[in-house]
Amino acid sequence: MTETVGRRERKKAQTRKALADAALRLFQERGYDKVGVREVAEAADVSVTTLFKHFPSKEALVFDEDEDIEAALVAAVRDRAPGQSVLHSLRDHLVATRATRQMDDPAVIAHLTLVRETPELQEYWDRMWRRHEFALAAAVAEASGAPEGDLRSAALARFALDTTSLIRGQADPQGAMRALFALLEAGFGSDPS
Question: How far is CA 74 from the centre of its chain?
């Protein structure tokens, strides 16, 4: 049974990756507005119904790691090492996942360019990051025993996530990320947990 579940999950992951890869390639070649979901499905050799089982919208095809990113952010707070502060855990997670992205990698540049030059994708990106922010704020509030909607937790989540855009173009993104978190720590005084 476990092998069947594992095989099924691998197949789903392969289909999802094939769809995301096909979409990105077609969008970059011809432009986001000139490619329909039917073309993406055909390029990945699946039905449109299957496409929508994996992605709720055309925009979501470009952000195939959306759910994984959010889950990892929340896990950075909930699953942090004993004695490690929320702030330090978030810093370490973001340094490892966002500040290490190769900003000179042609694939990363092409992806960011597509998003920045396509209003629908930019809007989706903004909504996606706000969803991540709310999920992260809830995890921070829970970790610190604060009530739901806690302003301090919301501020920490917003500032932590905004560091990813602030380090773009820096010669040493990891150092820049650490410096921003040092500023947050000094500004926040003590960690909310």
Answer: 11
pTM: 0.84
Q: Which residue, 96, 102, 86, is CA-closest to 146?
A: 86
pLDDT in tens, 88-107: 999 999 999 887 766 667 88
> Distance between terminal CA atoms of the chain?
41
Domains and CATH numbers, the chain: 2-55 (1.10.10.60), 66-188 (1.10.357.10)
Residue 53 CB: number of other CB atoms within 10 A?
14
Note whether 80 and 92 are within 8 A (CB): no
82/55 Cα distance (integer angstroms): 36
Q: Which of 102, 81, 87, 71 is nearest to 182 (CA)?
A: 87
Query: Are 73 and 136 a contacting pair, CB within 8 Å?
Result: yes
128-179 pLDDT, tens per residue?
999 999 999 999 999 999 999 999 999 999 999 999 888 888 888 899 999 9
77 touches 89 (CB < 8 A) = yes
